[in-house]
C-alpha cells in the first residue's frame, strides 16, 4: 500500500521501542531457539510462584527478572492487583516497561515455519501490523489492505481508506490450538496445521477471544487497558486473564478510535495443558462468560473517558454495578481494576502534551458531536 514502506519496517528491529514480556515458573531454555529473533531485544521476565526458585536465562540476553518479592517491594499494598500462580502476572511487566511496544509470549512457544519452510519472525510481523493502520469501520474483503500485493477493493469508501492507528496485534498458533477444557477433552488429538496467510482488522463493535501467548500491543495507546485481571491462587477463576483483558481492551479501542488486528504471525505452541486441571480453573468462567460477553457488548463509555486509563476506571465502576450480581468476585475484580490504574499511574505518571491530545482525534470529534459510543 502506498505510503508505508513495509520492507523498511521488517528490516528495522526497533529494538529500542520493544520490550518482550515473559511470564514463567521455569528456566527459559526455550529462548535458545528464539535467539535469532529475540536476542537483540530487552526482556522483562515475570517469575510466578515460589520466588526462591532460581530461574536460568540463556546467556547473551539483556533482561530484568521480577519475582513476587520484587512485585511486593515495588507496588507495596497495591501488589494485590497482580495475579499469583496465573499467567496474568505478566501484566506487571507491561506496567514497569517504558517502551512503546510490548510483545508477550509463553514459555512453551517456539519458532514456527511458514509453508515454504522459512522460519517466521514474529516480531517483524507484529511490528508491521502495529505500524500500519487498521480498518475497523468497513470490512475489506482482501483483508489487510496495507500488506504487500493487496489494496482496498472496489466499493471501499475513499473517506475510510486512511484507517486508524493499530493498538493491538493478535497472533496465532500452529500445533496445539488455544482450546478450552471441554473442547480439549472432546478433541484430545486435534492439532492446528492450517497456515492462513492473512491479517485482518476485527470490526468495530465485535469482540474476540484474545490469547496472551502471541500478542503485541502499543503500550502508549492502550497499556492501562491491558490488565489481565485478578486470577489464580485465592480467586475462584483462572485461565480467563487474557480473555478479560481482550474484551476490555477491544471496547476501549472501539471507543478511542483505535484498531485491533488478528492473524499473522504464527508461532509453534508445543505443549497441551492438562484438560482436567484446566476444567477446575475454568469452570466458573465457562458459565460467567455468558454474562461477561453481553456486558462488554452493551456497555457505553462516556465522552469524558478520552484516555485508556479513564476508560478503564469507568469500566471498573460498570463492572461493580453490573457483574457483581453474577458473583461477588466481580466486586473484588472491580476494586483490583482501580488499584491497577493507581499503580500504573504511580509508575507511569500521565504526561499531557500536544502529541497525546492528537492521538485520538476520532474521540475528540465524537465529543464535539456530544455522542457516546456503544460497543456493539
TrEMBL record:
Biased composition (Basic and acidic residues): 366-376
InterPro entries referenced in this protein's UniProt entry, alphabetically: Nucleotide-diphossugar_trans, RGP, RGP_fam
Keyword tags: Cell wall biogenesis/degradation, Glycoprotein, Golgi apparatus, Isomerase
Catalytic activity: UDP-beta-L-arabinofuranose = UDP-beta-L-arabinopyranose
GO cellular component: cytosol; Golgi apparatus; plant-type cell wall
Localization in the cell: Cytoplasm, Cytosol; Golgi apparatus
GO molecular function: UDP-arabinopyranose mutase activity
Main location (coarse class): cytoplasm
Keyword Nucleotidyltransferase tagged: no
EC number(s) from the headed UniProt entry: 5.4.99.30
Domain of life: Eukaryota
Function summary: Probable UDP-L-arabinose mutase involved in the biosynthesis of cell wall non-cellulosic polysaccharides.
Family: Belongs to the RGP family.
Name of the protein in its database record: UDP-arabinopyranose mutase
Amino acid at each position: 500500500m502506498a505510503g508505508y514502506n513495509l520492507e523498511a519496517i521488517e528490516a528495522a528491529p526497533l529494538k529500542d521501542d520493544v520490550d518482550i514480556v515473559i511470564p514463567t515458573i521455569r528456566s527459559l531454555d526455550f529462548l535458545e531457539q528464539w535467539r535469532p529473533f529475540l536476542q537483540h531485544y530487552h526482556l522483562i521476565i515475570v517469575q510466578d510462584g515460589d520466588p526462591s526458585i532460581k530461574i536460568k536465562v540463556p546467556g547473551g540476553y539483556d533482561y530484568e527478572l521480577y519475582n513476587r518479592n520484587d512485585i511486593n517491594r515495588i507496588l507495596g499494598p497495591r501488589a494485590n492487583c497482580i495475579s499469583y500462580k496465573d499467567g496474568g502476572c505478566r501484566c506487571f511487566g507491561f506496567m514497569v516497561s517504558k517502551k512503546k511496544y510490548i510483545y508477550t509470549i509463553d514459555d512453551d512457544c517456539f519458532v514456527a515455519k511458514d509453508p515454504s519452510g522459512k522460519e517466521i519472525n514474529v516480531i517483524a510481523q507484529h511490528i508491521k501490523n502495529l505500524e500500519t493502520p487498521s480498518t475497523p469501520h468497513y470490512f475489506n474483503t482482501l483483508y489487510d489492505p496495507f500488506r504487500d500485493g493487496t489494496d482496498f477493493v472496489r466499493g471501499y469508501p475513499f473517506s475510510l481508506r486512511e484507517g486508524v492507528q493499530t493498538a493491538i496485534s493478535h497472533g496465532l498458533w500452529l500445533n496445539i490450538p488455544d482450546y478450552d477444557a471441554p473442547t480439549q477433552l472432546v478433541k484430545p488429538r486435534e492439532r492446528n496445521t492450517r497456515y492462513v496467510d492473512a491479517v485482518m482488522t476485527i470490526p468495530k463493535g465485535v469482540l474476540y477471544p484474545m490469547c496472551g501467548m502471541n500478542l503485541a500491543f502499543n503500550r502508549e495507546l492502550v497499556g492501562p487497558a491491558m490488565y489481565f485481571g485478578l486470577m489464580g491462587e485465592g480467586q475462584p477463576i483462572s485461565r480467563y486473564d487474557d480473555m478479560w483483558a481482550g474484551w476490555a481492551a477491544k471496547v476501549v479501542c472501539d471507543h478511542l478510535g483505535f484498531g485491533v488486528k488478528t492473524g499473522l504471525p504464527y508461532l509453534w505452541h508445543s505443549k497441551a495443558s492438562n484438560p482436567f486441571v484446566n476444567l477446575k480453573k475454568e469452570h466458573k468462567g465457562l458459565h460467567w462468560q455468558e454474562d461477561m460477553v453481553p456486558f462488554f457488548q452493551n456497555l457505553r463509555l462516556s465522552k469524558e473517558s478520552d484516555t485508556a486509563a479513564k476508560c478503564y476506571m469507568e469500566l471498573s465502576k460498570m463492572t461493580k454495578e453490573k457483574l457483581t450480581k453474577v458473583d461477588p468476585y466481580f466486586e473484588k475484580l472491580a476494586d483490583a481494576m482501580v488499584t491497577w490504574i493507581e499503580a500504573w499511574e504511580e509508575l507511569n505518571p500521565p504526561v499531557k502534551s500536544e502529541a497525546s491530545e492528537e492521538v485520538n482525534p476520532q474521540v475528540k470529534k465524537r465529543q464535539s458531536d456530544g455522542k457516546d459510543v456503544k460497543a456493539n
